[in-house]
Each structure stands twice: as C-alpha cells, then as structure tokens.
Design a protein that fits this description.
Blueprint lengths: L1 H54 L5 H29 L6 H31 L5 H26 L21 H36 L7 H32 L8 H13 L5 H22 L1
Length: 302
C-alpha cells in the first residue's frame, strides 16, 4: 500500500513537471512569434514612414515628433534579434552588459514612446503649432535628457544589485525584493494609467463634440480626421502599454509565490506586447488609407 502511494506521488510530480514545461514552451513560442511579427512589421513601417517623411518639407511639431518615434522604434528593433536568439536557443551568448542594455532598451523605448504619444495628442487637442527652432529645441532636449541622464543612470543600476548566470538574461525579477524598486514601479504604473485615462476621456469628449458639430458629413472634415488619428495613439497605449503595467502590479504582489517562474514568463509576454507599438506607423498608414476609402465611398453615395 505504501509503495502504491509513493508511486502515485511520483506520477503526480512528474505530471506536474511536464505541465510546467509544456506551459513554458508555449510561452516561449508566443514570445518568439510576437518578436518576429514586431521585427518584420516594425521594419516595414519604419521604412514606409521614413519615405513619406522625406517627401514632406515641413518641420511641424507633428513631423519632428513622428521622426523621433521612428528613431526610437529603430533602436528598439535593433535589439529584437538578440532577444530572438535567446528565446530560440535558450542561452545568452552576448555578455552581461549586452543583456542589461537589451533589457533596458525595451523600457526606455516604451516610456519615451509614451511621452511622444502624449505630445502628439496634446498638440492636436490644443492645436499647438510652434516655430521650427522651438520644435527642434524641444525634441532635442528630450533626446539629450534620455541619452545623457536617464540611460546612463539606468545602465549603472539596472541589473547590478544581484548576481546572475552568464548564460541567462532578462532574469532581473529578483530585484523586485528591494523597496525602492517596488515604489518606483508603482509610481510608473500610477502615472501611465492616470495620464492614459485622462487623455482617453478628453479625446472621446472632443471626438463626440466634433462628430455632433459636423454630422452627417464628419468624414469630409479635417478636424475630425485629425482627432481620430490622435485617438489611434491612445488605442495603441491602451492595447500595448496598459496591460503590461496592470499585470506588473499583480506580478509584484505575487512575486514570492512564483516558484516555477511562470509569472516571469507571463511578464515577458506582456513586455513583448509593449514592443508592438512599433507597428503604429504601419497601422496609422493603413488607417489613413481606410479613412480615404470611406470618404470616397460616402462621396459616391451622395
């Protein structure tokens, strides 16, 4: 009887281990697929929008901001092959500093992209338009702050407080045990979600007022199309950034229970989802084409 019980326990443990391994393999497959889509679609989007920007001679707030987004996306796309190599082979081959750099880039890209999104939305909401020199100075200041202050500080402290295996990467979850890291993460989550919620409410209100004002010919008015494009950037934030931050709160609170590192892999999937914002230029181009088709269709109906 005792031997039978022990055998059952062994079978249950073996079955449990197989389930964990299967789940991990599926999550790794999801990560690989997401990053391949982002790399292919993001590269195509950057090339297409770069060609469109080269054809435009204006140096408006929108043009310079979108150019900054293209540069941000390009830097992030350069880091994706390193991530794919790690998730496919299961071994990090590029050294500890490269690991910290590749990991930091994705966070720098996320928050810098969010900042430029907010700038685009506010500029369109308030119909702001500055001189070329002011716009260039503002964008340059943002880049200098990120390159000379935020990036060096992040690389100096990120992933340095604990000891990690040289063959592993993106395993900096143990640093969540430190109180200042928990506070910093909660602050980032609160700021991003609050800003997103406020801008969403304001943008929906503006779109509603514009739709009522110009109904039923809303598609033929530039103001409505401009506000619709702004709402597109809010949608990208809601789809790509907000889920990761909400899950981060859950992950921090349940970190101690993550014995099999399953939550870590889910966190990596949500983090990979944030990189899908690099498809914004391609998606925005497609949306613009669809709006033009709709306008043509409604014109023909008249």
């Amino acid at each position: 009887m005792t031997l039978f019980i022990k055998q059952n326990l062994r079978n249950q443990n073996h079955s449990s281990n197989d389930t964990v391994l299967d789940s991990s393999e599926k999550l790794h497959t999801v990560l690989i697929v997401l990053y391949i889509i982002n790399l292919a679609g993001g590269t195509l989007g950057v090339i297409m929008m770069a060609q469109l920007l080269l054809q435009r001679r204006s140096q408006s707030v929108m043009t310079i901001t979108i150019t900054s987004l293209l540069v941000l996306h390009s830097f992030m796309l350069l880091s994706i092959p390193f991530r794919l190599s790690y998730y496919i082979s299961g071994v990090w081959k590029f050294g500890r500093f490269a690991c910290r750099l590749a990991s930091a880039i994705i966070y720098l890209h996320m928050y810098a992209t969010f900042a430029f999104y907010v700038a685009i939305i506010i500029a369109r909401l308030l119909r702001l338009e500055f001189r070329k020199c002011y716009t260039a100075a503002w964008a340059g200041a943002v880049w200098l702050l990120g390159a000379l202050v935020i990036t060096p500080v992040l690389l100096s402290y990120y992933g340095t407080s604990k000891t990690y295996r040289s063959s592993e990467c993106f395993q900096f979850h143990t640093e969540l045990q430190e109180a200042h890291m928990v506070i910093a993460n909660y602050c980032l989550v609160g700021v991003l979600v609050a800003v997103c919620a406020v801008l969403t409410g304001i943008q929906l209100t503006v779109i509603y007022r514009v739709a009522v004002k110009y109904w039923p010919d809303i598609n033929s008015h530039v103001e409505f199309r401009a506000q619709a494009k702004s709402f597109f950037f809010i949608l990208v934030t809601l789809v790509c950034f907000v889920p990761h931050h909400i899950f981060r709160v859950y992950y921090i609170q349940n970190y101690d229970l993550d014995k099999d590192h399953k939550l870590l892999l889910y966190n990596e999937v949500f983090l990979a989802l944030t990189t899908m914002c690099c498809l914004d230029m391609l998606s925005n181009h497609v949306m613009t084409a669809l709006l033009s088709c709709c306008m043509t269709f409604f014109t023909l109906l008249k």
